[in-house]
Amino acid sequence: MKIIMLGAPGAGKGTQAKQIASAYQIPHISTGDIFRANIKNKTPLGQKAKEYMDAGNLVPDELTCDLLMDRIGQDDCRDGFILDGFPRTIPQAQALDQALTARKESMDFAVNVDVPDENIIRRMSGRRVCPNCGATYHLTALPPTKAGTCDACGSELVQRADDSEATVANRLRVYHEQTQPLIDYYERLGILKTVDGTQPMDVVFAQIKAVLGKELEVSNVESRCD
Ligand code: ADP
Ligand code: AMP
User: Fold this and answer.
1) pLDDT, tens only, 63-111
2) Closest ligand by atom to 123 CA
3) Distance from residue 153's CA to the centre of ligand 2 (Å)
4) Please, what is the end-to-end C-alpha distance for the chain in angstroms?
5) For a surface tag, which of 57, 81, 120, 161 has the fewest beta carbons within 10 Å of its beta carbon?
6) Residue stretches of the chain with pLDDT short of 70
7) DSSP states of 133-159 as a string?
8) How far apart are CA 14 and CA 31, in angstroms?
9) In sequence order, what E strands does the chain have?
10) Is the CB of 64 inside a 6 Å radius of any atom of ligand 2?
11) Ligand 2 in contact with 58 (CB < 6 A)?
12) How many percent of the chain have pLDDT more than 70?
């Protein structure tokens, strides 16, 4: 099963992608997480990506596409994967299609988590992340058990640098200009599924399961038979 998560920054792509990855037993690939890991490890890629990310702009396609194609070529992606934050431009989508066509494969679904801009601002200002294990929380919608502390690993939670109000405004502008056209792109390919991302997280997950339903049931039956 090969799935793309589409949606504005803060729509809940990562939140849902983690659950889907666990339900389907496929890797969750977040280009944002990969860039952040590179920044943390002070790699040359991280140094290049940081200036774009801090400003709320997209990292150039030539840096992003090679990284993603390399990742989906790894062994753990043989039975599928879920992409979170890629593609973000039409050239990225075309590069992905070409790479998969060369492997005689194609994407199965593009799930668009639809959330209006006014909800996005609230989501982003309340997002808190664990710099150690990557878990994501929200001050009101998904608070950790102990304020400011990661439930999973006990580290101190932080606000992402690019979740500041000014940067969020630019990220939304960039989303509408460069990423939103992908909704039509995947509609034309016949694989677009849109869900109402303003609902509570468990309701959104149930909607996604319903649209992917058949395949999920099949994969569950197969895993029970193993
Ligand atoms: P994205 O990966 O699209 O940038 P996230 O999954 O990180 O978005 O979610 C952004 C913020 O909104 C996080 O703080 C998350 O806990 C919260 N969130 C995600 N889904 C919902 C939802 N359905 N309702 C309320 N808050 C949500
Ligand atoms: P995310 O974690 O998905 O919100 O991504 C955080 C930031 O990483 C984005 O604002 C971009 O600067 C950069 N980024 C992540 N994925 C991509 C991509 N596919 N193309 C370009 N930039 C990206």
Assistant:
1) 999 999 999 999 999 999 999 999 999 999 999 999 999 999 999 999 9
2) 1
3) 25
4) 18
5) 161
6) 214-226
7) T--EEETTTB--SSTTB-TTT-PBPB-
8) 11
9) 2-6, 28-30, 81-84, 109-114, 127-129, 136-138, 192-196
10) yes
11) yes
12) 94
Residue 160 is a catalytic residue: yes
Pocket around ligand 1: residues whose beta carbon is below 6 Å from it? 7, 9-15, 123, 126-127, 136-138, 141-142, 197, 199-201, 204
Torsion of CA 18, 172, 185, 104, to 10 degrees: -40
Question: Is there a cis peptide before residue 44, judged by omega within 30 degrees of 0?
Answer: no
Per-residue model confidence (pLDDT) at position 223: 41
- Cα of 10 vs centre of ligand 1, distance in Å, is 5
Catalytic residue among 13, 36, 123, 128: 13
Task: Tell me which residue has tokens 């790699």.
Answer: 43
The region, left, alpha or beta by phi > 0 then psi within -120 to 50, assigned to residue 102 is: alpha
| Annotated active-site residue in 2, 88, 123, 128 | 88
Structure tokens at 25: 């037993």
What ligand has the least distance to the C-alpha of 32? 2
Looking at residue 213, what is its pLDDT?
A: 78
Q: Is 10 left (phi over 0), alpha (psi -120 to 50) or beta?
A: left
Check if 128 is active-site.
Answer: no
